[in-house]
Amino acid sequence: MGRGMSMTKLSFFQVNSKCMAEMKEKQVSLQRKVDDLQAVIEHLKRGEPEVGENSAARSVTNRAHPKCLLLDYNGTGEIVAEALVMSSDPQDFVNGIPLGPNSYKVLVENAIKPDAFLCRPTTNILNMEQAVGEMLAWPDDNCIFHEDNAPKSPNTASANKCILLNWRGNEEVVVAEGRWQSKELDALVNGLPIGPNVVKVFVDVVLKPETFLWKPTTKISIIKDCLKTFVAWPEDKVVMV
Q: C-alpha distances in angstroms, 133 versus 67, 108, 111, 127, 227?
């Protein structure tokens, strides 16, 4: 046991070492949370939904932190949680790890399926119930944005797919790919009826990010702002594929 080392001292040393290790782990976890919160506060102070908002490659949308539903990443299509999208910047961090491409950084508000396993778990956060109030990385194709109080995208049937042509000029320039949903006069996009000779489309892929919208709003003016959400587009500029 060593000279001068009694059983009492040894026990105290072991307990002290365990406590120090636990405190260090908690400190790292708290520091990550503080870093995430500080980043969010800075974006809010600047009136930005995320870093790189003006970059087409990094922007989610000009609308501050849109709400979304998280689908099971295993491909079951089951809704597992409600969340806010905080960032799509690949260089942003979640739990000390870069977000990377094709992912969103989300803040989980409500666990619909508490035992749903996370795609990037940590030692302390393994399922969706434990993730409420936490930041997560989630695949962007498993995030569905709220729209018109019906937060779901149209189906993926080939008969539903379409391309959007630039509504300005006579040249047939493809600006985006999406899924046709409705051309009912009272179908809503950004809270407004689309009206006659218009199609409501869910935008899957943006090809010409700076294309001006046919129906812009005070916060949304170009097609990249509509990625993974709905847009109103002239019917004669929507081609089924």
A: 14, 5, 10, 13, 25
Token reading at 73: 């990443």
Structure tokens given for 182: 């409705």
Which residues are bridge partners to 222 per DSSP?
212
The two structure tokens encoding residue 119 = 């795609």
DSSP helix/strand/coil, 58: coil
Could you say which DSSP state residue 222 is in? B
CA-to-CA distance for 189 and 215, rounded, in angstroms? 9
Q: Are 230 and 154 in contact (CB under 8 A)?
A: no
3-state SS class at 169: coil
Residues 6 or more apart in contact with residue 175 via CB below 8 angstroms: 164, 165, 166, 206, 207, 208, 211, 223
- For the stretch 158-217, pLDDT in tens is 558 899 999 987 778 999 999 988 888 888 887 788 888 999 998 989 999 999 998 887
Q: What is the pLDDT of residue 60?
A: 44
Per-residue tokens: 93: 């961090």
Query: Does pTM surpass 0.85?
Result: no
Cα–Cα distance for residue pair 161/117, rounded to 1 Å: 31
Query: Burial code of 68-106, b = ≥16 C-beta within 10 A, e = fewer?
Result: bbbbbbeeeeebbbbbbbbbbbeebbbbeeebeeebbbb
Q: Which band of pLDDT confidence, cut at 50, 70 and 90, is reported for residue 87?
A: confident
